[in-house]
Amino acid sequence: MDKVFVYGTLMKGRKYHRQYLSQSTFLGKAEVRDFAMYAVSSYPGIVPEIGEKVKGEVYEVDKETLTRVDLLEDAGSLYVRKTVDVLLEGQVIPAWVYIWNRKIRGGKISYEAQPWKG
Questions:
Q1: In this structure, is residue 112 part of a structural domain?
Q2: Number of structural domains the chain divides into
């Protein structure tokens, strides 16, 4: 099983959660540090940025689910999936994160305005 940090349309109550993650184990609310969130379209993207933080959720997923999420996120093109340290309820764990892989055209979403509500 893999752990994946999500911060946008895959979070509980959002557009793609039910279709992709409703059968996966929710491990809790979390954050990644040294990343910033931007409105890259009608959805968010995160990029490395020292001193910033992003709110999200962590799920334990099987390989099939991770492959399906890769397809949704256009992994390798729009986003790149990498393992980063995630702060999950006071504990640092490694988890997959989808990092924006294109130019930033939208505005930054402050930590206080997170999680993404787009």
A1: no
A2: 1
Angstrom distance (rounded) from CA 88 to CA 75: 24
Other Cβ atoms within 10 Å of 6 Cβ, number: 28
In a domain, 75, yes or no: yes
Does the reported pTM lie above 0.90?
A: yes
Whether 73 is catalytic is yes
pLDDT digits (tens, 9 = 90+) for 3-49: 999 998 999 999 999 999 999 999 999 999 999 999 988 789 999 99
Which member of 49, 52, 64, 73 is catalytic? 73
Domain membership of residue 91 as a residue range: 2-104
- Helix (H/G/I), strand (E/B), else coil: 40: coil
The pLDDT value given to residue 22: 94
Asked, for residue 59, whether it belongs to a domain, the answer is yes
What sign has the CA pseudo-torsion 100, 56, 32, 110? positive
